Structure formats: C-alpha cells, structure tokens
Amino acid sequence: MAKTVSKGLGRGFDTLIPQDFDSDILLDTNERIQKIAIEKIAPNQDQPRKHFDQQALDELAQSIQRYGVLQPLVVSKGADDTYIIIAGERRWRAAKQAELTQLPVIVRSAKELEQLEIAIIENVQRVDLSPLEQAVSIGRLHEQFSMSYGDIAKRLGKAPTTVNNIVRLLQLPDTAKEALRAGKITEGHARAILALKGDEALQAELLSNIQKFGWSVRQAEQFVNSAKKGGQTRTIKKHMATKTENTELLSKKLGSPVTIKRTAKGGKLEIHFTDDQDLQRIIDGLA
C-alpha cells in the first residue's frame, strides 16, 4: 500500500493539479481495461459534484467524438449487473452526449477502494507534507471518492474550515502554485493572492511584489485591502515600499542600510548593522 501512495502522491509539480482520473493511483500495470455498455454505467448518487459546466461538456463531447475516451472510468460493481462510477462522471456524461455505446472502465472492488482511500488519508496526515500537497490529496478524496469536505474533515480530525482553506490553494494561479511549492512564498502569502481571485493581473502583480520586495504577509494583505477599495496599485506599492527617497538619504547619512517596516498602524524604521562595532558607530553618528 505504501508503494501506491508514493507512486500517486509524489512531490513533483505535475501532481499539484488533480485530474478527474489519476491513473498512477487507481491503475496497476497488470490490470485490464474493460469495455462496458454505457447503459450499464450509472453515476454515484453520493457524488458531491452536482453541477457540470455545459460548455465544458460540449467541448469534451466533441473531443470524444474525434479521439474517443482516452482515460478509462473507474467503477465498482453495483446491483443488477450495473456499474457505479467512482471517477469519471464528467467523461461519462460527455460520452453519452457524443452517443457512444461503450466505455473503457477499470472495475474496482469496495475493498480495493477502501484501501486506496485509507492510503490517501494517511498521506494527508504526514507531517512533512506541504499545504499544497495536502490540498491535492484532499481534492482527490473529494473528486475520486465522492467524499464531502465535511466528511474529509472528520476523517482527518481537522476543522471543516481548515480543510476548506487548504483545498482552496488549488485555485491559485499556476505561477503562485509553483512559488508556494518552491518555498518562495508562504501559505499566508498564497491566501492573500487567493483573495484577489478573478483578477489575474492583480494576482500576478501581488505575487511579483512579494517576491521582488520581500513583502510580509501583512504587507500582502494591505495590498489586497487597498486594491479592493479601488486604490491605485502604483500608489499602494509606493506606500508599502521598504525603501523610499527618505530612507536612501538616511542610509547615506548613517552609512548603513535603512528600511521601512509597515505595521497595522504606521510602521518603523530599521537601521541595519553588521556587528557591535558597526552599531556603536551608528549610535555615535546619531549622538
């Protein structure tokens, strides 16, 4: 079972965006893909996703008409010679729309599915798993095992709000996901970027400012608040700059770097020194 977890939930960036079907997790190389009549396949009534974008379905149906179903559905045996969809309802809907008569499937037993579910839950509970990797695993439990976020929270022993906040990281732009994965921004920075969802330009600008100027989470949040109130981002960036014309003048006068650190109310000047001797030099200059 450990091998399955490692294979499906590796630390490469290609695992960070969950797909409708994850062949690495759900398919062993020695298993056969079966062809089953589409009328024998039924959706899972406990599937948490109830809405499917019609335009996206139309596009997928056109692709299926041209290329066929490229990834098999994962199903379990139901009653009366039927099969219940575990992963792939979107492809099943599009295939019906494309008037296909058969679909490729992998049949999983309830015991196998339970083992896979447990393996992913154990993976989420690993202490060395990053927030983004946790989000991927939670997303898979939600999409591929028809678990609500409330049920996932209970299984993980976490508050529902915690689980919802973690899984929201999957909504980050790809550039922000990469920065979070690489440790260039923190989870707090990521949440500030998420607060600007719907405005890709502002999200990109905030990410750039965080990385370029070393903004704290508080500064990122101030940027978000000001931007939402209609502030000009150029003015916002200037207001939150760690260096200004005045700090440059002070730096020249003191012979040491001087920066601004913004706080909730006002801020403070920081004078940098290299050692105690350098500190005494600065103090003597201010006397």
What labels describe this entry?
single chain; 287 residues; alpha/beta; Conserved hypothetical protein from pyrococcus furiosus pfu- 392566-001, ParB domain; Arc Repressor Mutant, subunit A; five-stranded mixed β-sheet; two-stranded antiparallel ribbon; disordered N terminus
Could you walk me through the main structural features you see in this protein, from its secondary elements to its overall organization?
The chain is α/β, with parallel strands linked by helices. The chain folds into four domains: 90 residues, Alpha-Beta Complex (Conserved hypothetical protein from pyrococcus furiosus pfu- 392566-001, ParB domain), CATH 3.90.1530.10; 58 residues, Arc Repressor Mutant, subunit A, CATH 1.10.10; 68 residues, no CATH class; 41 residues, no CATH class. It has 15 helices and seven strands. It has a five-stranded mixed beta sheet, with helices on one face. β6 and β7 form a beta hairpin. α11 packs antiparallel against α12. The chain is elongated and about 90 Å long. It starts with a helix and ends with a helix. The N terminus is likely disordered.
Spatial strand order of the main sheet = 1-5-3-4-2
CATH architecture type of the largest domain: Alpha-Beta Complex
Radius of gyration: 26 Å
Q: Which spans have pLDDT < 50 for at least 5 consecutive residues? A: 1-27
Order of helices and strands: HHEEHEEHEHHHHHHHHHHEEH
**Count of folded domains:** 4
Strand content: 5-15%
CATH topology of the largest domain, which one?
Answer: Conserved hypothetical protein from pyrococcus furiosus pfu- 392566-001, ParB domain
Shape: elongated
Number of helices: 15
CATH superfamily of the largest domain: Conserved hypothetical protein from pyrococcus furiosus pfu- 392566-001, ParB domain
Oligomer: single chain
Question: Which class of secondary structure composition applies to the elements?
Answer: alpha/beta
